[in-house]
Write a structure and sequence with these properties.
Layout: H1 2-17, H2 25-33, H3 38-42, H4 46-52, E1 61-69, E2 85-91, E3 96-99, E4 127-131, E5 134-139, E6 153-156, E7 161-164, E8 176-180, E9 183-187, H5 196-199, E10 202-206, E11 216-217, E12 231-236, E13 239-243, E14 253-257, E15 262-265, H6 268-271, E16 278-281, E17 285-289, E18 296-300, E19 305-309, H7 315-319, E20 322-328, E21 331-336, E22 341-345, E23 352-356, E24 362-371
Parallel strand pairs: 8-12
Antiparallel strand pairs: 1-2, 1-24, 2-3, 4-5, 5-6, 6-7, 8-9, 9-10, 10-11, 12-13, 13-14, 14-15, 16-17, 17-18, 18-19, 20-21, 21-22, 22-23
Length: 379
């Protein structure tokens, strides 16, 4: 009797420590992974909250953003100050922004320029792409207006680690950057000096290849008209879509076929939709946000036309001056000109819209949706 009584506390502990009482943990993990809202699991108990961030649990998606410090605006009569760059992740379970671990010191992030005294009302682009579950910093300018990045910096959210990618064959700025099928593409742009060779070139880096040995040169572009400013190369149905000018100016579009390694002109009926930032949901459905009107449109390939997505009342006002957009799981995440991050649920009818509160004193430059970041410190 005494021996049996002595065993009772440990038996109770074993039951208490189980994820779901009466089930082996590996079965419990499968059951819990079917819950669509991770925040519900986190609210139940500490053990389930730990599970959410463990390697055994399928990573839920989180919002990642490149910020600059908006509190460093100059005083009247003084020159512009180059703000510091910060990478942060918004955890939907805790509803908090967490800083990413520091990246490697090469290239030094403080040398990447966002504001420059030569450009009074223009911010220099800092280009990031999200591809194959990774966040990749790929292009920017330094104080001398030369390329600030000689090789990409790659962040893996699941391991919460940075690595350096292979050197870029022709480092550049003001280029077209994008991804398609787990491959990064960098096209056109400028080096330290303008070069027609660089302006017509395109290179790719396959992040699915674990060796990541080198960038591969591809068939060059037909002209140099895509080196005027930073461009999003939108991955869509095994093609890259590029438009050379932002805003209301006359534009030219190009399409690169990643399978045939060939270029073609963009049809006019597709080009007219580029009235603001454009993205592709799962590289399949094209969405645009009109930076003047704030309207959301979806491209109908069969009819070769853009149709407007109905949003909630006054939703267009929230989306005016859209600067960048990304899409995943039926939602668009938009950065607006007034420094907000706005989410649009395009599955709902009408589309629902809400904002994500950003850290005080920070201004978003680009936003991405990736697997949650590892959190070994969760308690």
């Amino acid at each position: 009797m005494a021996a049996a009584a002595a065993e009772l506390p440990s038996a109770k502990r074993r039951k208490t420590d189980a994820l779901i009482e009466g089930l082996p943990d590996h079965i419990s993990e499968i059951c819990l992974s079917l819950v669509s809202r991770p925040s519900l699991l986190a609210a139940v108990c500490t053990r389930w909250r730990h599970l959410l961030y463990s390697p055994e649990f399928p990573p839920f998606t989180s919002l990642y953003a490149l910020f600059v410090d908006s509190s460093l605006d100059p005083a009247p009569g003084h020159g512009r100050v180059n703000p510091s760059i910060r990478f942060m992740c918004f955890d939907p379970v805790s509803s908090k922004w967490d800083p990413l671990p520091p990246p490697p010191p090469d290239p030094p992030l403080h040398r990447i320029v966002y504001r420059h005294p030569s450009y009074i009302s223009f911010n220099l682009p800092i280009q990031c792409v999200s591809v194959a579950g990774k966040l990749v910093l790929i292009a920017g300018s330094n104080q001398e207006l030369s390329p600030a990045i000689s090789h990409p910096l790659i962040f893996d959210p699941v391991s919460a680690t940075w690595t350096s990618g292979p050197p870029i064959g022709s480092p550049r700025r003001w280029c077209a950057t994008g991804a398609c099928g787990g491959v990064i593409y960098m096209a056109s742009g400028m080096g330290s000096q303008f070069s027609s060779t660089v302006a017509k070139s395109i290179e790719k880096l396959d992040l699915k290849d674990r060796n990541r040995s080198n960038w591969e040169k591809l068939r060059e572009m037909r002209d140099i008209r895509f080196s005027r400013e930073a461009i999003d190369a939108v991955g869509w149905r095994k093609k890259l879509l590029m438009v050379n000018v932002k805003g209301d100016a006359i534009k030219e579009g190009a399409i690169y076929d990643v399978v045939t390694d060939d270029w073609e002109s963009m049809p006019e009926e597709m080009l007219v939709g580029w009235r603001g930032p454009v993205t592709a949901m799962e590289e399949d459905s094209l969405y645009s946000v009109d930076e003047t009107k704030g309207t959301v449109r979806k491209y109908d390939e069969e009819k070769r036309e853009w149709r407007e997505v109905t949003v909630v009342e006054n939703g267009e006002e929230m989306l005016k001056v859209a600067r960048q957009v990304t899409a995943v799981a039926g939602k668009l995440c938009v950065i607006t000109g007034d420094g907000r991050i706005v989410v649009v649920d395009v599955v709902a009818e009408p589309a629902k819209i809400w904002t994500v509160e950003i850290p005080e004193g920070l201004e978003p430059v680009s936003v991405h949706v990736l697997p949650r970041m590892s959190r070994p410190d969760i308690s």
